[in-house]
Amino acid sequence: MSPDQPLVPQPTAADFPEFLSIPVRVARNAALYPDKPAVKCEGRARNWGDFDRRVNRIARSLGGMGVGSGDKVAILAANSIEYLETFMGGLRAGACVVPLSTMAAADSLEKMLDDCDAKVLFLSDQYRALVEPYEDRLGKLIAGGRIAYDFSRPGWRNFEEWLSPASEGAFAVPIGVLDDFNIIYSSGTTGLPKGILHSHVMRDMLAVRFTAFDYGPDTISLASTPLYSNTTLVSVLATIGVGGTTILMTKSDVPKFLEIAQRERVTHAMLVPVQYQRILAHPDFDKYDLSSFKAKLSTSAPLRAHIKADCLARWPGRLIEIYGLTEGAGSCMLEANLNPDKLHTVGKPGLGSEIVVLDEQGRVLPQGEVGELAGRAQVMMKGYYKQEDKTRELFWHDRDGRLFFKSGDMGRIDEDGFIVLLDRKKDMIISGGFNVYAADIEVMLLRHPDVVDVAVIGVPSDQWGESPMALAVRAPGSKATSDEIRAWANGQLSKTQRLVAVEFRDQLPRSTIGKIMKRELRAPYWEGRGSKI
Q1: What's the confidence (pLDDT) of residue 1?
Q2: For the chain, what are the domain ranges?
Q3: DSSP state of 8
Q4: Could you give the C-alpha distances from 473 to 279, 372, 467, 509, in angstroms and in order?
Q5: For labelling, which of 156, 230, 463, 474 has a CA lying 20 to 30 Å from the CA of 320?
Q6: Which CATH code is given to the segment(s) 198-324?
Q7: What is the CATH T-level fold of the domain 428-526, as seen in this structure?
Q8: Confidence check: pLDDT of 54 > 80
Q9: E-assigned strands of 229-275?
């Protein structure tokens, strides 16, 4: 895919006359707030002046190695000040940064590193075992392109030693509106994950628009999810863009989150639903002073209505749920505080987005009917890196020829224009020819006092093809039996929704950003059948 001719139509520089790249914003913030903390992590801090100078040194060091416009720089590490400096330094050098998932298997990471054409890899000791099995096969890394943050090993250069000769003086290369910013790999479970290619203008536009959520120079944002996640980057880049302070946690930890939020007078946090659930359930939650919060944001998976209600009642500040694709194909926003009667929805299309609902033939469905959501926005991803066929699979065009991305999510638009999200299309249960949406059953099951978490999946049925089954986590101390919960549920469900079984789990498998891994839950039941995995 040529950067000059992206598969997905892109805006022109004339559409964004006030465009400033994120690296330029970093330099501007350093001039405005040189002594204010830019980033904190694990008791360490870097003020804006020092942060900018370190970014200059990293960019200059990369440039000295021949890394420039459009080249790829990969990072595999836990959250740290150095990680964020490297990310910004790579951008300032004109490179496209590829933050890699620390949860991926070694063979998947090898495919990603080859696919993204990374010339340099920054690695922390914690994740060496994910690279060492194929280290000798990383032929696309340039000479000297293996940089170790915190370990010594032949063939790897120590990060601080690599950096030490570089001047901290101002360094910049021209960055265009459509230049490559990052590649974010999807959490694919089979084959090669898709590399989502974002432009500089898309990232800068999101950072600017987050001022609507009260992001500003006084923002203190607490990031407790990994920097390789788009969820994290959206909030961190917004904080960087306005000159606020980012606090990075190396891993999600509820007591630590609450302690930092109280001590540092945190104003913003982007959290995933399971974090809200665990934070609000902490026995000492109400003892912490969280009055400094201006806004809390939720994304990556639907936030249950009862958790939203609990959050509104007990946690100060605005609660904003954002639904959208990493690909950037439209988004929805629910300002929960202002719409307490719409907590079962993900809000209305916002930020210049449009959403339609499609049937199986690609026809637009009327309001109220269930189908696949498709969306468009002012700026969308440039495409899946080197995977044009996969990119085209997303495409849907309206009568005017405008491009929308199909989301793979099922939902409907209610009478007030709010989006009700149901299931991933691939997770939809088809029982006896009827579409059964797990989300409807899950919402009902969570009303049972003995159920604190649940996932509904389809399991094989000789009579119906597949039937819904619930995998539930009981409340602490609960004595309820699976038969009791199943009978309670089936007494309220329609015939096609009725559960064939309820099984208990100590916990449900989740990704690092909190999505329930339904494929993993389904696998044992469909083993040997060759479908529905």
Answers
A1: 45
A2: 21-30+46-166, 198-324, 428-526
A3: S
A4: 17, 29, 20, 11
A5: 474
A6: 3.40.50.980
A7: GMP Synthetase; Chain A, domain 3 (3.30.300)
A8: yes
A9: 245-248, 268-271
